[in-house]
Amino acid sequence: MIPTLGVAMLIGASFDAAFAWVTTGPPVIEPTLPYLAATLYLGVFASAIAFPLYFGVLRVIGPAKAAYSGVLVPVIAMCLSTLFEGYRWSLLAGAGAALVIGGLIIALRARRPAR
């Protein structure tokens, strides 16, 4: 699985890089530590390590329950943005986060019909 995933990620990144280069020109790389560290984090931890771990979760709990994590990602991102970037929650953002969490609780506790 990991070699296949690696090849798929390489192909996808190559297509993305080619499209970006054609539409906006060559990449602009800032030679600063925060920029390089963030790029390294996104490439290694948030992609190369996270995807195989997610596929492991898929095998254990199944794709239906694992798909619910995608709903929670924006809420987690907003929480991290609050901690690190000073994001200020609006009433609408808080209500949306509450709906997401409530919906997840209802969906995960719902009984599935017997087959």
Helix-strand blueprint:
Blueprint lengths: L1 H23 L8 H29 L1 H5 L1 H17 L5 H19 L6
Description:
- The protein is an all-alpha fold.
- 81% of the residues lie in helices and 0% in strands.
- It is extended.
The poorly predicted ranges are none
In DSSP terms (H or I, runs of 4 or more residues), the helix count works out at 5
How would you characterize the largest beta sheet? none
User: Residue-averaged pLDDT, rounded?
Assistant: 89
Supply the helix-strand structural class.
mainly alpha
Q: Radius of gyration from the CA trace?
A: 19 Å
Note the beta-strand portion. Answer: under 5%
Outline type: extended
Task: Return the string of H and E elements.
Answer: HHHHH
Query: Helical residue percent?
Result: over 70%
What is the CA–CA distance across the termini? 30 Å
Q: How many runs of DSSP E, i.e. beta strands? A: 0
List keywords for this structure.
115 residues; mainly alpha
Short description:
The protein is mainly α. It has helices at residues 2-24, 33-61, 63-67, 69-85, 91-109. Helices cover 81% and strands 0% of the residues.
